[in-house]
Amino acid sequence: MSRAAVILTCVGIYLLICVVVGIWAMRRTRNTRDFFVAGRQIGFAVAGLAMFSSTLSGFGFVGGPGLIYAMGLSSIWIIITTPTGMAVSTWLLAKRLRLMAEVRDIVSLPDAVAARYGSESTRFLAAIAILLGCIGYLATQILAMSVVLQSLASAVPATQGLSLVACVVISTGFLLFYSVTGGVIASLYTDVIQGAIMIVASVLVFIAAVNAVQGGAVGAITSLVADDPESMGPWGTMGMIGCLSWYLLFTIGGAGQPHIITKNLMYRKVSDAANALPVSLAAYSCSALLWIGIGLAMRAVVIQGGLPPLASADQAATTFLQTFASPLLAGVVFAALFAAIMSTGDAFLNIGAAALAHDIPLALRGRPLNNELLSARLATVGLGVGGAGFAIYSHYVNDRLIAFLGAFGWGTFAAALVPVVAIGLNWKRATPLAANVSIIAGLTINLAAELSGARLPHGLHGGTVALVISMVLFIVISRLTPMQRPAPDIEAVMEM
Amino acid sequence: MIARSPTRLVLALLTALAALFLVLALLPAGPTASATPHAQYPGMLVGGDGSSHRAVLALGWAFGALQIALFAALILFGAGARGRERGLLRPLVGGSVVYLFVWTLVVAAYQGWLAGASGPSVLGFPLPTVLLIFAMWPLPVFYVYLYVRHFDRWVFNADDEARLRDLAERSSQR
Fold it and tell me: Taking residues A18-29, what's their average pLDDT?
């Protein structure tokens, strides 16, 4: 069997596993609560791995090594945020969200926001912010998956000539199948498989990376320091302020990422939050090995003259796998790449469907849709098809569109949702007006920064500035406006 | 006072961060303040000699220090009154001071490295990077440890469990 056929077979087996999980999960999905929050029956191991695999998207497997290749150690500041970011997010939100889910039967983040502030306008704005971020993220994931699938298929005679549109249809088909049939239950259990594949692949790739460079790890780093010492300094090539602004955005911003924090609603017991945290952290730390290993190895190999410079930094991971990994390892890593993309994609499908089928109708009509489970499934299909169409449109007509919306995602969620959720769920003085203003401010500042393409001095990140401004606005406006006591049951939860 | 009003502390730290951004915006950025393309390898960037950092090193240290204080303040905030009253404050502040100390070491080692000092290296990484990767990265696991180890004491105990059951029962009767 050829190298390409081995890789494609590994990816095929993985996709089939996702379909089987989807069918299994369908039998366990009986109502909206099952579809959106897995009936709050998820144990800590599943939740921990699901949080990890939703966090690490395809960006971690392709963009991460590419950033190290291009910029040296700068992007390590995104990775080292993990222990602090996960801890801060868990201290602020894990218990609070889980308790609210129990008391108010909450199935989505905007549900929690509406319960906390007693405001349907805040629910609506939170749902819109989630939907805007979702579309960009989802289209990015679908396009990434399709491009990789096309490149793999082109190397096998039987599948040569498969168009990108066909690859989009196939990729979206698999993603939608298990997301629609099994809802979040299928997403969570595929996340577990996906997380396990990612961990194994990362460790194996790190070993391969160390062996790929002349002189091993020490040889690689010595070559890199000799070429450009600053690239191996603590800030890489981006500079100190740029790295520190990433540190702030990715640490505190994690508490506003809906595809990650909604997992807190799903624990079987409140104490599962404590056990899920180390699981998630350990898994993420393992996968960081791939990000750093491939990036450093590829930069060193090119500098040592072992390979010509890459046409694009994003080719670092794929070139490494084609050149230095055995066919089976490359197959496992490509399956892991699909896993990383799909686990993030399904998380976005789930929260986007909740926004469309649950939160926006509730905010506008004051009551849920008649058949909410069916509506949720239809919304998932609609979002998937919309995301696929958007991916194709962006690829053929406007290639800046997806990059724009993808980049918009993390910063938008951070600036729009961290104050409202992370601060607001812990502070009784917070008011609905402050929540609404900070969501709008977070969206507007991020949008303006992305549209204008303005670069802030010293590498300061626009998303970081937006996050700090929206947090300040939230606290100041809350202090200046009359306090509105939360509902008694919510107040009791906030006092626990 | 801090324990009683962590919101004020969070606001003070956020305001200080906003002021720091303003100072940075007003501080002229030199020609080598950001990465430049590698002369030999297209697609790679280089950081140069690091001289541009001399002007922002103190501000950068303050930026990092404010963040560490903000992380601790947010954890204190999330712990609620119970956590603060039952002894979280001391280990949290202690751990954060160590975190701040390591951060200061990273910046000091970098300053020495800029001046040409060579210190011990691990795997070929210069000393400030060694401190970043092997000390500053794993250190905040301490915050995770506090949550996991003292969950029953500072986060959610048996009394809370009973109150939650009562609340949930009342809510289902509505």
Answer: 83
pLDDT exceeds 80 at position A450: no
The answer to whether the Cβ–Cβ distance between B163 and A231 falls below 8 Å is no
| Residue A196 contacts B where some CB pair is shorter than 8 Å | no
Q: What's the CATH code of the domain at A175?
A: 1.20.1730.10
In a domain, B40, yes or no: no
Is B36 inside any structural domain?
no
User: Within an 8 Å CB–CB cutoff, is residue B143 touching chain A?
Assistant: yes
- Residue among B60, B71, B128 minimizing CB distance to A233: B128
B122 phi/psi in degrees, rounded to 5:
-120, 130
Residue A130 counted as domain residue: yes
Give the residue from A74, A104, A24, A15 showing the smallest Cα distance to A338. A15
B42 located within any domain: no
List chain B residues with CB under 8 Å of A468. 14, 17-18, 21
What pLDDT digit, counting tens, does each position of A72-97 carry? 999 899 999 999 999 999 999 999 99
A268 shares contact with chain B (CB less than 8 Å): no
Q: Is residue A256 part of a domain?
A: yes
**A226-240, A475-489, B110-124: the lowest-pLDDT one:** B110-124
Q: Write the pLDDT tens digit of every residue in A82-140.
A: 999 999 999 999 999 999 998 988 889 999 999 999 999 999 999 999 998 888 788 88
pLDDT of the residue at B32? 57
pLDDT at B3: 55
Our CA angle for A69, A296, A315, nearest 5°, is 40
Domain that holds residue A256: 3-398
Residues 45-64 of B with CB under 8 A from A: 45-50, 52-53, 56-57, 59-60, 63-64
Please report the pLDDT score of residue A407 as a whole number: 58
Q: What is the DSSP string of A444-463?
A: HHHHHHHHHT---GGG--HH
Q: In angstroms, what CA-CA distances link A82 with A31, A89, A339, A456?
A: 34, 10, 20, 25
Total domain count, chain B: 1
Is A35 within a domain?
yes
Domain that holds residue B60: 6-26+50-173
Lowest mean pLDDT among A118-122, A390-394, B126-130: A390-394
Question: Which backbone phi and psi does A153 adopt, to 5 degrees?
Answer: -65, -35
Provide the domain count of chain A: 1
- A225 vs B: CB within 8 A: yes
Distance from CA of B112 to the nearest CA of A (A): 12
If one counts every other C-beta atom within 10 angstroms of the C-beta of residue A46, the result is 24
Q: Is residue B41 part of a domain?
A: no
Residue A472 within any structural domain of the chain: no
d(CA B57, CA B119): 19
Q: To the nearest whole angstrom, how far is the Cα of A386 from the nearest Cα of chain B? A: 33
What percent of chain A has pLDDT above 70?
98
If one compares B143 and A199, the residue with the highest pLDDT of the two is: B143
pLDDT band at A314 (very low <50, low <70, confident <90, very high): confident
* Alpha-carbon gap, residue B133 to B105, rounded angstroms: 13
What are the start-end ranges of the H helices in A105-234?
A: 109-117, 120-154, 164-212, 216-227
Contacts of B11 in chain A (CB under 8 A): 472, 475-476
What residues in A contact B161, CB-CB < 8 Å?
270
- The interface predicted TM-score (ipTM) is 0.93
